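pinging the channel bc i need a second pair of eyes. not urgent but kinda urgent?? the chain im working w is below, pasted from the shared doc
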Amino acid sequence: MTVATMASSSTTTTTMTTTRTTEASAQPVMSALMAEPVVQSAPAPAAAPKTKLHGRAFYESIGSPKHIIAPMVDQSEFAWRMLARTFLPESDRRKILGYTPMFHARLFVESQRYRDTHFQAVRPAPSPSTNTSSSSDQSIQAPPVPWLDGNSALDRPLIVQFCANEPHHLLEAAKLVAPHCDAVDLNLGCPQGIARKGHYGAFLQEDQELIHNLIKTLHENLSVPVTAKIRVLETKEKTLAYAKNVLSAGASILTIHGRLREQKGHLTGLADWEHIRYVRDNLPPETVLFANGNILRREDVEKCLRVTGADGVMSAEGHLSDPAIFAAVPEKGKEGREYWRGKDGKRGGWRVDAVVRRYLDVLHRYVYEREPPVRRELFIVGDDEAWLTERREEEEGQPMRKKVKEKTGGESNGGVVGQERKKKEDMTLGSPNLVAVQGHLFHLLRHFVSKHTDVRDALARAKAGDIERLEKILDMVERKVAEGLIEYDRTGDAGGMDESATAQAEEAEEEAEDDDYYDPESSEKAVRVCKRPWWVVQPIIRPVPKEAMAKGAIKPKRERGTPRLNKQKKGDSVVELTENGSGKGGDDDVARTEVVEGKVESMEALERKTAYPVSELVSG
């Protein structure tokens, strides 16, 4: 589809949120999606233009959401956003604000393929199924129908994020998505090398005039509001001036990530909530501000709101580890089959098999547009265990894909029906929702696969769109979780968490009630607080830079003129530390970290080098 088609009739591709897994709620929505549009005999009178709201008025118009799914490259697609919303009651699902992954504005404008593989807001209406239509009737093309991204029945509120360094490209890209979202966001926070090379994201922060022009162009020429996401600068005063520049240009909402541009990968460290609080206290009270950083678990959300004074909290990596991070915890005794709680009644979390099952249900219903397969109930102790010992029967006859093809008719239907099916299959295989699945599952199962390497290997072989293989992986996960629950019931062994470890975790959790929960010197307390059995979703804790330095994951830069003591292997990734201050001491004298580009070490090698288990590490 062309750019013009996208604005009025094309299929743009999107990839985020997921839908509810219960059959009752999904079916009416799917029926609405599948229904053919009503063709009117005469055009309706033009509606009055919708008033464009700004600032807090806009924020209130979308429900004043406090929980925000962060824009994440190739990871905050439609299916993932929908998954997050399935953990909330139907009436509360609009309380989560979703962001799309970051899109490249120029590519979005110039490349139809790029649009089709990133944003799927609409698709062509079904063609007439009769062969008796006159040529004049066939020349009339029905308007496109709502599909996934930004669908008003499924995926709102939604903000689409772009990176850009040229106002014209940003505006043209924003106009294409404006009919399908609530606002457009400018990415000013990406710290990766590709952003440096392309001169966008956090690498625009030295050019405050360009930033102002980019935002002002959207504010003055776009039908929906513009928002922006930034990182903090070296001082609170500089960050405040930065924020004022963004807001004066016309941004309705400002998101502040409490880390410097240099804080990434093993140099990530902690986000500075007090830095965000300073900006909050020195901006007009009507300013809408979101805080981002340090959200590992649900308890951190409320703490962040309290400490920063922000209107909402945005979660990125924490949400990838636990898509239910914004959901209420079930009451004791009402956990059902999806939520696990320990024998002491204190520590618990959502089971990995339950979350993966919900995720696949979303893919079945919204990407493949069919009901999920009939599965057995999730296992709880006390259920029949015979199925665990039964050998899985080998599939008989043709492979699953051929069966599905024959069931749907394959090429035999031909004509208009066959063409429509082929078009639909092509659009499905190119879906960003399928490309992201493997990465999401590795993140969800990071702790799980460190113990069950056969599941890791099976997932590594899975190809995008191979839903049958994913169902087999789900079955493997469900069986291993069941075995873990049985063992825990028999021995009290919570996946390697003995009584002393549990006691330490509970003690750390009590200490975590204080605002000093995060220790810039050590990640030990965070690990103890967040640790759960391997069958429960849980965050991936990064070692703080000081720990990574001590373990050799990052190395200090040698002074000029001094001999190289340890010869560095060619291609290794090295981190250099230099002093960046006045030399007079105090808060302004801080060590500045730089990553020297080189070969990225494997997770296994990094585990050996740092003595941190793979499950506790995350790549930058």
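so The radius of gyration is 26 Å. and The longest strand covers residues 96-104. — does that match what u expected or am i reading it wrong
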